[in-house]
Amino acid sequence: MIEVPQRPSLVEQVAGILRRGLHRGDWVDHLPGELLLTQQLKVSRPTLRAALEILQREGLIAVSQGLRRKIIARPKRTALHGDTKTVGVLAGLPFHALSSFSLYVINSLQEHLLPHGYRIQVFADPRLASARPERALEHFTRQARSDCWVLIGLTPSALEWFTRQEVPVVHAGSCEERFAVPCVEVDIRAVARHAVGVLLRHGHKRIGLLPGEWSFPPLEAGFREGLAIARVKNVQPVIIRPSGTRKQLQANLETAFRSPARPTALLVARPKHVLTIMTQFGQLGLRFPRDVSLISMAHQPFLDDVTPAVAHYTFRWAIYAKRLSHLTLQLAVRGAIPPRQHLIMPEFVEGETVARPRE
């Protein structure tokens, strides 16, 4: 017998009844029609449709021929009665050091998941982003029995641990295919290709790339692809290898730009390094864009106060957060989703740091 809901929180109760029916296997391929369901549940058609929309957003049903709702997934047990109803968030920095974007993502997850009965539990700890994060990961995942986890700013070592443990997880950032983890990330490979094209169109042939603290294969691949696609002769790419400290970064930059064949343009992966570069280049007597053109491949609000205005790539935070929240909800309800990359292409903002090189 199908249940009859009580009146408080009617839409959510109807959605819960339907979830339990899906879990029990009350219906095989499709839900019954709206008329029959409204009669069985003793609710109005608008109330029923609102509940069906919740199940559709959770990835359990989809509209097929006509208005029939096709069953495409069964909810897992913990999503039925509120046994857990928790999504854990792991961040690799302490709370006071999290970026504005990371805080925005966490807040957006709360806003999107709360109406579905899920609470967010955040663990922000630098041990999670260390070279050996296994003990910290085991500690936090045991402390909070979550339906799934969202990772922010964690290292490949952490992704490898989650892959071995087969824990349901979504990564807010880049991940290699070998980890088989769903992730939402900026299409940095496409950004690198586009940025190289911008500099080549301005006539630059000695282009430097500063990847950041560690080597990032998609970034370097996009950089080289951009050079290959353009088919410009006598181009000299220079990759300034990753550095762990500010002093190492400054030493590597000075070596590259003291060379007779110094780059005339520079692509910088991390906005925080833009400040270091602009300060150091002033000490070296180099000016933007007269002596060096510069493009930041990401953006942080502090760059808005830099003079000259830095050419950079930016994307809409709301689009990113909505995509991540949707995948997280699917994973929490279903227990597994395809481990694919969800790429978001940023927009290029021209700024004032790109010009033709001096002869």
Categorize the overall geometry. elongated
Number of domains: 3
The CATH superfamily of the largest domain is identified as Response regulator
Q: What Rg do the Cα atoms give?
A: 25 Å
Q: Kindly report the spatial arrangement of strands forming the biggest sheet.
A: 4-3-5-6-7-13
**Ranges with pLDDT <50 over ≥5 residues?**
1-8
Write the layout of secondary structure elements.
Blueprint: H1 10-24, H2 34-41, H3 45-57, E1 61-63, E2 69-71, E3 86-91, H4 100-113, E4 119-124, H5 134-143, E5 148-152, H6 156-165, E6 169-172, E7 183-186, H7 188-201, E8 206-210, H8 217-230, E9 236-239, H9 246-258, E10 265-268, H10 271-283, E11 293-296, E12 311-314, H11 317-334, E13 341-344, E14 347-349
Parallel strand pairs: 3-4, 3-5, 5-6, 6-7, 7-13, 8-9, 8-10, 10-11, 11-12
Antiparallel strand pairs: 1-2, 12-14
Helix pairs in contact: 1-3, 4-11, 7-8
Task: Describe this structure as you would to a colleague.
With 359 residues, the protein is α/β, with parallel strands linked by helices. It has 3 domains: 10-75, Arc Repressor Mutant, subunit A (Orthogonal Bundle); 86-186 and 318-344, Response regulator (Rossmann fold, 3-Layer(aba) Sandwich), CATH 3.40.50; 188-314, 3-Layer(aba) Sandwich (Rossmann fold), CATH 3.40.50. The chain has helices at residues 10-24, 34-41, 45-57, 100-113, 134-143, 156-165, 188-201, 217-230, 246-258, 271-283, 317-334, and strands at 61-63, 69-71, 86-91, 119-124, 148-152, 169-172, 183-186, 206-210, 236-239, 265-268, 293-296, 311-314, 341-344, 347-349. A 6-stranded parallel sheet has the order 4-3-5-6-7-13, covered by helices on one side. Helix 1 crosses helix 3, helix 4 packs across helix 11 (317-334) and helix 7 (188-201) runs parallel beside helix 8 (217-230). The longest helix has 18 residues, at 317-334. Mean pLDDT is 87; it is low at 1-8.
